[in-house]
């Protein structure tokens, strides 16, 4: 299986090891992830203004490039996945945005949302299958009680993201189980961590992350795994989270460990 790969900014700067774990794991699973040439930042936040077009152009360039190669576009970062997927939905369903974007870009072939962007976790679930992933595990994470932290961007808004049940998701729990660990559910696993508020209102982020970690601790979670670099940072650095006896990992770390490539 071959995919076009959109890395995003964080995984090329502050979190390079998390990208390496993903690429090494993909190779172990027989998956080719070819990084797109000349990719640009997705903007990190989906633009809510209906007349905002410029910040959507980089997403469309990547989507169109993957479409032209006949490949799905794969991301590792929940923020990148969120932005690109919602922009793709705009290109499918909003004729005014579609026309403006295509006028700006002057692509050889008009882009109308026919491409597909998926998160790496979706690739594992839908294209490889968690049962097949389990067969590839050489270092099962037995005896470890791991809680999934979804946050906001993977699940909401549900119509556009169509990732999993926004109130009771299971994809990361099934991923944890495939690696041989025990998935543990807890109430705050889909609550917001505060996101970018950490840059200018840390007190709010401290409170939100503390609620998440306390919820996990009350349900005997020993480790938290997430698929968003910013969520990982907030949970590790903000409020009381750093003082709890609960580790925070990125999903690619656990995958690489279980496959024996970390």
TrEMBL record:
The keyword Nucleotide-binding does not apply. Keywords: Oxidoreductase, Plasmid. The keyword Metal-binding does not apply. One of its GO terms (molecular function) is CoB--CoM heterodisulfide reductase activity. InterPro entries: Cys_rich_dom, HdrB/HdrD_reductase. Residues 4-85, 148-235 form the Cysteine-rich domain. Pfam families: CCG. Its EC number is 1.8.98.1. This is CoB--CoM heterodisulfide reductase. It comes from Ilyobacter polytropus (strain ATCC 51220 / DSM 2926 / LMG 16218 / CuHBu1).
């Amino acid at each position: 299986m071959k995919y076009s790969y959109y890395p995003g900014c964080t995984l090329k700067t502050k979190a390079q090891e998390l990208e390496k774990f993903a690429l090494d794991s993909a190779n172990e699973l027989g998956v080719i992830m070819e990084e797109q040439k000349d990719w640009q930042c997705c903007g990190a936040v989906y633009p809510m203004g209906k007349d905002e077009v410029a910040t959507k152009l980089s997403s469309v360039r990547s989507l169109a490039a993957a479409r032209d190669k006949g490949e799905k576009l794969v991301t590792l970062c929940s923020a990148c996945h969120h932005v690109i997927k919602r922009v793709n939905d705009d290109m499918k369903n909003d004729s005014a945005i579609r026309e403006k974007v295509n006028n700006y870009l002057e692509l050889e072939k008009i882009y109308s949302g026919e491409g597909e962007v998926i998160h790496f976790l979706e690739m594992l679930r839908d294209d490889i299958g968690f049962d097949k992933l389990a067969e590839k595990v050489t270092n099962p994470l037995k005896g470890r009680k791991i809680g999934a932290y979804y946050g906001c961007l993977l699940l909401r808004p549900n119509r556009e993201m169509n990732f999993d049940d926004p109130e009771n998701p299971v994809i990361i729990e099934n991923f944890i189980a495939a690696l041989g660990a025990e998935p543990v559910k807890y109430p705050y696993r889909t609550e917001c961590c505060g996101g970018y508020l950490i840059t200018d209102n840390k007190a709010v982020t401290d409170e939100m992350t503390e609620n998440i970690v306390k919820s996990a601790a009350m349900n005997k979670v020993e480790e938290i795994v997430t698929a968003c670099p910013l969520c990982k940072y907030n949970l590790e650095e903000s409020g009381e989270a750093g003082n709890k006896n609960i580790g925070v990992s990125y999903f690619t770390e656990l995958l690489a460990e279980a496959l024996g490539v970390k």
